[in-house]
Write a structure and sequence with these properties.
Rossmann fold; three-stranded antiparallel β-sheet
């Protein structure tokens, strides 16, 4: 994926919505509900009682329908009132249009793959294994940023160009250690390789995250000169020193030996200062995880939302239905639902 790829993307999301423009009128719903409920509470208490010597006559005139007719009539009126109240509350249906624009960041992850990164002071992992796990987690947290991978020992080279294909990037990261050809630590060359990958980028923000456990001892470019080039192009550099200072255990040919390592913290701090980045020191896996978490929070993609909603009035349907039910109830009360006194 070329560095000239647009550094933004826009997403439009449609969502159907429903609301009442004047929901305060819904309070009136308690009136028909109360009428309907109170009918059953009072039922039998206030109905007049008449004595008949013989009730067989009621079977002939369908007296059992009286109860059904009263309930049906009350239901129709109650339903009509509820529909009219809904109409007063002005139900509306709308379509929400949401446009999201994301301004991504271009990030080059730079990893030291020299033999000293095999030190076992990040128990039970080596320095490189711990770094690989943390970097993998960092990649998973990004969503709209192009990320590339540069590795270095005596030489530096791009293992993965800037990409949004995080699965491909993870695959390169998994095999990064196999890329070492000659041992050494070429920090200046690693920065220069990263700058070369970012120089034509049109991203709003361009950053380098460089992790090493040693001192610059190979390559034709010193780290500070490379940092000044990065600064001139607006590329911020975060530097991370990993491992314990001095002796650290390392396994060579199945034997556990002690290896002397030294981190050039002063140079790493100066590289970060020149490029307006920050220097970090990690002596264990927990500290290393915390460093990448902090960088992830510091370097966030800009996201802009534009939202608008268009509503259509729906009260007419409720109003018509309520009026029709009222007329139907009025008509039925004088025909089919008519009751004897």
């Amino acid at each position: 994926m070329s560095s000239s790829e647009p550094r933004w993307k826009s997403r439009k999301v449609k969502a159907e919505m429903f609301r009442f423009a004047d929901p305060v009128f819904l309070i009136l719903l308690v009136i028909p509900i109360w009428i309907f409920i109170s009918y059953f509470i009072r039922k039998g208490r206030t109905d007049p009682t008449m004595l008949f010597p013989d009730i067989s006559v009621f079977g002939k005139i369908g007296a059992g329908m009286g109860k059904f007719k009263r309930v049906l009539s009350l239901f129709l009126v109650t339903e009509a009132i509820c529909l009219l109240i809904f109409a007063m509350a002005r139900p509306q249906s709308g379509m929400s249009m949401n446009t999201r624009t994301e301004h991504g960041i271009d990030i080059i992850l730079v990893l030291d793959i020299s033999s000293s990164m095999e030190a076992l002071d990040f128990h039970p992992l080596t320095r490189f294994e711990a770094a690989k796990e943390v970097v993998s987690d960092f990649i998973k947290l990004r969503t709209s940023d192009r990320i590339g991978l540069v590795v270095f020992a005596a030489q530096s080279f791009t293992l993965c160009p800037l990409t949004l294909d995080y699965d491909m990037l993870a695959a390169f990261l998994e095999r990064a250690e196999e890329s070492r050809i000659e041992d050494g630590t070429a920090i200046g060359s690693a920065i220069a390789t990263s700058v070369n990958r970012l120089r034509d980028s049109d991203a709003r923000t361009k950053i380098i995250i460089l992790l090493t456990d040693g001192m610059n001892n190979r390559g034709n470019l010193d780290p500070l000169t490379a940092a000044r080039v990065a600064e001139s192009l607006g590329i911020k550099t975060y530097t991370i020193g990993v491992g314990t200072e001095g002796k650290a255990p390392i396994r060579i040919d199945g034997r556990l030996l002690s290896m002397e390592t030294h981190i050039d913290e002063e140079t790493l701090k100066e590289v970060a200062r020149i490029t307006e980045g920050k220097y970090y020191r990690a002596k264990n896996a927990r500290e290393l995880q915390g460093i990448y978490d902090e960088i992830n929070k510091l370097e966030t993609s800009g996201i802009k939302f534009n939202e608008w909603v268009e509503y259509d009035e729906m009260y007419a349907g409720f109003l018509k239905a309520g009026l029709i039910l009222l007329l139907l109830s009025f008509a039925l009360d004088r025909t089919f639902l008519r009751r004897l006194p």
